[in-house]
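Supplementary material to the annual report.
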Amino acid sequence: MIELLLTVFSATFFVTVIRTTTPLLFATLGGLISDLSGALNVALEGIMLIAALTAVIVSAYAPWYVAVLAAMAAGALLGSLMAFFHLRLKADIILVGFAVNILASGGTVFALSMATGGDKGTSINLVSKAVPGVDLSFLKAIPAIGPTLSQLLSGHSILSWLGALTVFLIWYFLYRTPYGLWLCGVGEYPAAPEAAGIAVGKVRAWSLIASGALVGIGGAQLAMFNYIGFTRDMTAGRGFIALGAVLLGARHPVGAMLAALLFGVFEALSIVMPNLFNWIPSEMIQTIPFVVTILALVLFSYRAQRARQLKTLSKP
Amino acid sequence: MSTTSPSRWTAIGKEAGRAALALVIALIVALVVILLTSTEPAKAFATLMTGPLSSNRTIGLWIDDVAKLTLTGLAFSLVFQARQFSMGVQGQVYMGGLFAALVAMSPLGGTAFAIPLAMIAAMIAGAAYGIIPGYAKAKFGASEIVSSLMLNYIAILIVNFLVRAYLAPAGSGQLATQKFPDAAIFPSIIPGTRFDLGIVIALVTVVIVWFLLYRTAWGLKLRLVGHNPKFAEYSGIRANAIMVSAMTASGAIGGLLGAVFVEGRAFGNLSVDFDGNLAFEGILIAIVARSRPLAVPIVALFYGYLRQGAQLMGLRTDVPSEMIGVVQAIIILLVASSFSLPGKKALGRLFGRERSPAAAMPGEAK
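Predicted assembly:
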């Protein structure tokens, strides 16, 4: 137990948490944007998987930033596909989302096998690149706290810093610009913005596209920093956990970040625990993020329900 | 059900036509993909289209898949009819398979009771696993989509762990249990093939689910809750109780599928990752069948053929069987949407003026 505490409060664990949180954070923010516009995006998992593969294949032939952009583009493309089928062809958004997930789980293996010449498991034959880390070792020069600070802040992926920035940008967009108001209005009560002359369908379509692009960055981080390369089904439920994180984060960008951080902590725990407790079977450790998601979801939903009930009670 | 017979038949014809059109479009896309990627496209496409009929053995494989796809399609249909997007069938299959295997490996496994007992145990296990997301939604308002998906991952990990650590023969390093005793494995209907009791169980379940949905008060309430939960609530139906019971019944079917998996002649034992993602494909069956139990086996027959063709294509040619994922996605997208091809209408939709977007209400199940 002491060992676990020592590990959890070490700087390396913090770095691991940031690493595991980043893909979840982007996926959660993506889910948040589409959820606020009234379209529950259950395809986070599939989009992330396709984006991860895109990033790996592109990075084998191009610089890392092109690969990240390609992953974003792939995500945005899938988002627009969902928007097209949901808004123009009136398909149920949840069914469309699962179609994308099915496309991803089969299609990525197919595309991987094509790109590697027959390997259906990993992209090990493909020399893919990594997203560079940000070196802040100059912080060591600061007296007293310098070394710790540099240990904590140095070496994170550029995309992790981008993630923190994105939380702020999305917050600003949602609560400080008219477009954010449109977006929330479309999700809350579409008839009102429509009466005000706002193209409801367009807003929802753009939110799905933005959602796809954000999830795409998460996929790039997963396959170009957390792991270098693609493995079959490498998202392993992260997209679905992010879906839970959207609800858990009270549909607010900062809440989304905290929820993603919570699940990131537990994922990081499931990474460090096998080294500390080798008597716990690895499968049981792997269930931790999923169990935590259910428990957190139930607890949060219960509290939200209570809050709603109290609100209606207090009204005359 | 209030519609008169002729109009109902036209509606069915229309739906079948749309599904067939979706299938044709998806197959054309598959052909293009094969042409682009394969060095022997003609052989690959021919295997996809005719492979399952190539021998008695492959026909048996096909029918075995049809039985399983029918059951998972029914499990999804039942929750979809109540408009619950519970995706937990896979987890229920694993739990059902686990408990069926425990019965089959117990001393009871050698007796004549092995098959019915294992099926009952599996159904109870599946139902118990199906209650969890239903109860969490009814009691706490927790999204059943997220909780059921999480439960799938948990069930798979638990079963894989138990098989690896306890149920597999000790020290062998195998990732499967030993074969069950003969009394606990389904008898085959045509010897030498996988054409076994599974298909009979599947067809009986179709009739039972149809009867429950369309000939009982519970089924009427369930469909009412699915169509319009508010109205159902006002007319005195306890929507939450119906919802939980729908998920429980669906869980029992999922558990039954688990028993069919492990006791069928295809396996006859419990191994890790045994469902090969088939349980999840019930979502496609249910969507194409419009959640109608009687349409489920027909859709399963066609889809099972395609699935088996893809497997054989993966084995015999250079096109990986996973290519079928593309076909699946296109079929779901086309069937779930209101496409109509070819014609002015579709072109008008593509390029025409914006249709009233507010009509596209979010398909959320909150």
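Residues 2-314 of chain A form a domain with the ABC transporter involved in vitamin B12 uptake, BtuC fold (CATH 1.10.3470).
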